[in-house]
Amino acid sequence: MISKDVVMQTLRCAPNQYPQILNDKFPHILEKIVKLWNSPEAESYLADLLQPNGRGGGRMDRDGFPERAWQEIFQLKVLYSKPRPKPAR
Fold first, then answer.
1. What is the number of other CB atoms lying within 10 angstroms of the CB of residue 49?
2. CA angle (76, 42, 12) in 5-degree steps
3. Spatial separation of the C-alpha atoms in residues 56 and 50, rounded to whole Å
């Protein structure tokens, strides 16, 4: 499981923006978001998680994300779209 400090530092989110439901119920999703955060792939991954036919639902064998998890993903997508410093090379 990824540490809260790593998530907070990578996402540069405020404590009240921490994706607690993703951390508790979907740690593999949170780990992938953190892994992709500073790459162009993060935007499409987050968008796909929010789509009815994407990873977030639409499959007949899954119910999709609970509302609070979906809200956290949406908040992360909004946070991702905000300007942030480029990573050092």
1. 24
2. 45
3. 6
Other Cβ atoms less than 10 A from the Cβ of 52: the count is: 8
Q: List, as one string, the DSSP characters of 11-73.
A: HT--GGG--HHHHHH-HHHHHHHHHHTTSTHHHHHHHHHHSTTSTTS--TT-----HHHHHHH
Residues with pLDDT less than 70, the chain: 52-63, 84-89
d(CA 77, CA 71): 10
pTM attached to this predicted model: 0.82
Under 8 Å between Cβ of 18 and 68: no
